[in-house]
Design a protein that fits this description.
Elements lengths: L2 H11 L3 E5 L8 H4 L4 H13 L5 E4 L2 H4 L2 H18 L4 E8 L3 H14 L4 E4 L18 E7 L5 H4 L3 E2 L2 E2 H9 L8 E5 L4 H10 L5 E3 L9 H8 L6 E5 L1 H4 L7 H22 L4
Parallel strand pairs: 1-2, 1-10, 2-3, 3-4, 4-5, 5-8, 8-9, 9-10
Antiparallel strand pairs: 6-7
């Protein structure tokens, strides 16, 4: 997918909502769990009820991998369904891969070609030769872990290297790598105060922002510090949408929750005069 298509969706839907498909079968309704392929059926119902409000979907690969070959077959069905019925919607493999050379290339081929994702999350700890293979595929994107919301992020990411914090060094260095025009960055919503500085380092890149909703991140603060002229944000919500209800009305409630976020995003974009 060309990045222009994602931008078109953002302005068309007046939304920068990404929905995480973190499908935990312990939390889905019993009626879905009893189906032949509950991972697919739950995901499909969520997609059908929220596609009018979302510009991206982010399947969490671990929630499919945990069920072995059957789970990965379900993931393939989810992606085939998305690409056939909603090819305009950006897709993210939340896999957090990170390895070098041929191994990285094989990970890339798996998610870009076998599963036909538009992008994949990547861990940059091993440096540029663990990331550049993901950027060697036409119109495919790598989303680099930069500054995350988890407690352990302070173990490494915010440690000082000279005058910079490590996450700043990662962002600044990666912007010089081959194919960096197709890099995006993960920044946790609970790190809203740092987003302004990050935007200064990468003014044009898209930021994937998890943590709004159940994790307590503020959409208003994220937008205030992170918006650029093209919007430049994908704000992810998972649990707050897909588990808005655990009863038979789960899909309806998910659609309502997604619409609420979309309306908030629309108001923000109108206030900033971006639409």
């Amino acid at each position: 997918m060309k990045i222009s298509a994602l931008k078109n969706q953002i302005f068309l839907k007046k939304s920068f909502l990404c929905i995480g498909l973190d499908v935990d079968l312990d939390k889905v309704p019993s009626s879905v769990k009893a189906m032949e392929d509950p991972l697919f059926e739950f995901s499909k119902a969520i997609i059908d009820s929220t596609a009018a409000y979302a510009v991206a979907y982010k399947p969490n690969i671990a929630f499919f991998e945990t069920y072995g070959s059957q789970g990965m077959a379900s993931l393939k069905r989810v992606m085939d369904y998305l690409n056939k019925n909603h090819p305009e919607i950006f897709t993210i493999a939340d896999a957090k891969r990170g390895d070098i050379g041929n191994t990285a290339t094989r990970y890339a081929k798996a998610y870009y070609e076998t599963y036909n994702f538009d992008s994949i999350t990547v861990a940059p700890y091993m440096g540029k030769d663990s990331v550049e293979p993901f950027l060697s595929f036409k119109e495919k994107y790598a989303i680099l872990l930069a500054l995350t919301s988890n407690v352990g992020s302070s173990d490494f990411q915010t440690q000082k290297i000279g005058t910079q914090m490590l996450y700043e060094k990662v962002i600044q260095s990666s912007a010089q790598w081959k194919g960096s025009d197709r890099l995006m960055y993960v920044v946790g919503a609970t790190k809203a105060a740092a987003i302004k500085g990050i935007r200064g380092l990468i003014p044009n890149a898209f930021l994937l922002i998890p943590g709004v909703g159940a994790q307590g991140g503020s959409l208003t603060e994220v937008a205030k510090n992170g918006l650029n002229k093209d919007v430049g944000l994908l704000v992810n919500s998972s649990r707050g949408i897909i588990y808005a209800s655990t009863d038979k009305d789960f899909a309806i409630k998910a659609g309502t929750a997604a619409q609420v976020l979309q309306k908030q995003m629309q108001q923000i974009l109108e206030k900033k005069q971006l639409i």
